TrEMBL record:
It comes from Streptomyces kanasensis. SUPFAM superfamilies: beta-lactamase/transpeptidase-like. The keyword Hydrolase applies. This is Serine hydrolase. GO terms for molecular function: hydrolase activity.
Length: 456
């Protein structure tokens, strides 16, 4: 994420502090910390309750571990060591769920059970499940693979095992060397390192506490083992928004933020990408993840367009709604201090052949406009109404590939006559002409010879 300014206004900082103060009191959490990042760095941190450093105190982050595991898998894909459509069996044989693909595991659409059989795995020693057979149990699939989104902790256990198998090193070692160290996340670990918060259960009907165990999750670690600080998670959120070529490119993290599975029934404002939860809150598109383990709740959300990320960490089993609170903090900043648009500047040079293609085009009687973009691409948009439109990037063969919207992945071609003049645009077999149904134009089905006429 980049921005022309980073520091927050005092009024915005007060609004953030007020929001977390209310959440800590009403959520009855022994402590709560929060942080906001903008412009690729942390610009605010606040704390309430019994806590030292707001930015540097470790909390357990539970399922926010999953995006870290997903990043490792995406790195393997980018290196050509696997394909997201590969069945798991190709790289990790003998699991009994080998027909499920890597992409389905990343997006929780593989049909695997939500939890591991046996004692509550988050409160049980990892040694009770020494291997994948104990994690998966006798009925690992509860839905047909690929048919629906069904959140699965065993699915991310399998992805961690996949990383270890393909890399030839333990998941934790791969995570440390490939993600945490390059991003400078020195305070993100599998076991707590002081200063860290103790996990507590708060009595539902009295203001008294009970300590929660902090178990080693064993082979299920890739689904939720990590401890982290608010400062480290701000670094991670900024990376997920913009990419870092030392870890994962901007295009690959954008792919992670793209919906890979349909939302569950009744939650049309949510979805899931490749290791990231997706949400629509207050009219804003957010990506991130929530997390919880006994004694802790955590939330991380970021908005790419708003250039804002927020992290919330608390040490209570059923304390504040950390995910919702993090989304609220993004909204506080975005509403109070919307990002400034970049200044308009003319293009460095004019491609006259391309410039001649700009302006109105017609698909049938629908009017579209083709415009040049500052990055050298083009944009085709309807001139009235919502309609179908996309941005396009030039391909080496002279065509253009759709980047978003209805024509994402489709090819736009300029079709020329024998004399070199432009006949029409071809977009996935749709023909766009300079005039609507002009006689002699390459309109599929032809044009009535009588031309346009008045009422009969």
């Amino acid at each position: 994420m980049t921005s022309s300014f980073t520091a927050l206004l005092p009024t915005t900082e007060h609004a953030l502090l007020h929001r977390i103060a209310v959440a800590q009191t009403e959520g009855r959490a022994p402590s709560l910390v929060a942080a906001v990042a903008r412009g690729g760095r942390m610009v605010w941190a606040g704390a309430r309750g019994d806590v030292g450093s707001a930015a540097d105190t470790q909390y357990r982050i539970g399922s926010i571990t999953k995006p870290f595991t997903a990043v490792l898998v995406m790195r393997l894909r980018d290196e050509g060591l696997l394909d997201l459509d590969d069945p798991l069996e190709r790289h990790l044989p003998g699991t009994g769920v080998g027909a499920v693909t890597v992409a389905q595991l990343l997006g929780h659409s593989g049909g695997l059970a939500a939890e591991s059989p046996g004692p509550w795995w988050e409160r049980a020693p990892g040694g009770l499940r020494p291997g994948l057979p104990e994690v998966l149990g006798d009925r690992p699939l509860v839905h047909p693979p690929g048919r629906r989104h069904h959140y699965s902790n065993p699915g991310y256990t399998l992805l961690g095992a996949l990383v270890a198998e393909v890399r030839g090193v333990p998941w934790e070692e791969a995570l440390r060397g490939e993600v945490l160290e390059p991003l400078g996340m020195e305070r993100t670990t599998s076991r707590p390192v002081a200063p860290y918060a103790e996990g507590w259960a708060v009595h539902p009907w009295a203001d008294v506490l009970l300590p929660e165990p902090a178990e080693d999750l064993g082979v299920m670690a890739p689904a939720g083992v990590l401890w982290a600080t608010a400062a480290d998670l701000c670094r991670f959120a900024s990376f997920l928004a913009g990419g870092d070529d030392r870890v994962l490119s901007a295009s690959s993290v954008r792919e992670m933020r793209t919906a890979a599975a349909p939302p569950v029934a009744g939650d049309w404002d949510g979805g899931y990408g490749l290791g990231l939860q997706l949400a629509r809150r207050n009219g804003r598109s957010l990506a991130g993840h929530s997390g919880s383990l006994p004694g802790f709740v955590a939330g991380l959300w970021f908005g790419v367009e708003e250039d804002v990320a927020a992290v919330v960490l608390a040490n209570a089993t059923s304390g504040p709604q950390a995910g919702a609170l993090a989304a609220d903090l993004v909204n506080v900043v975005a509403e109070a201090e919307p990002p400034l648009p970049g200044p308009w500047r003319p293009l460095a040079g004019a491609d006259h052949a391309l410039l001649a293609l700009t302006g109105p085009w017609y698909w049938g009687t629908y009017a579209y406009g083709l415009a040049l973009l500052a990055d050298g691409g083009v944009e085709l948009r309807p001139l009235r109404g919502a309609g179908r439109g996309s941005r396009f990037r030039r391909r080496p063969d002279g065509g253009w590939i759709g980047l978003d919207g209805y024509y994402d992945g489709e090819v736009l071609r300029v079709v020329r006559r024998e004399d070199g003049s432009v006949s029409h645009l071809d977009l996935g077999s749709f023909v766009f002409t300079r005039e609507p149904y002009e006689p002699g134009d390459a309109v599929p089905g032809g044009v009535d010879e009588g031309g346009w006429r008045g009422a009969p």
